[in-house]
Design brief:
3 helices, four-stranded antiparallel β-sheet, alpha+beta
């Protein structure tokens, strides 16, 4: 069974130090230019992990990702307009 995962965007001061976030969860991406990291953790351990990450001196801010709450199933209620643009 796949555990429920929660994503966090962690804004950092030091990108090299952000590699150490791997011990708190799955480090998915680190942006050197914008200085943030994307970290996925198990939902039942999320609060504990965020509390520990906030204590790190190179962390500026932590934001929760709302990606799993966005609707990804689409319906085709709109008629297909491609026949009007064909030759």
């Amino acid at each position: 069974m796949i555990p429920e995962r929660t994503g966090y965007i962690i804004w950092v001061n030091d990108v090299k130090a952000a590699r150490n976030l791997d011990k708190y969860g799955t480090l998915h991406y680190v942006s050197k230019k914008m200085q943030y990291a994307v970290l996925y953790v198990n939902a039942e351990k999320a609060e504990e992990a965020v509390k520990n990450v906030k204590r790190l001196n190179y962390v500026k801010k932590i934001e929760r990702s709302y990606r799993n709450e966005i609707k990804t199933e689409y319906s085709k209620d709109v008629p297909d307009k491609t026949r009007f643009y064909g030759m």
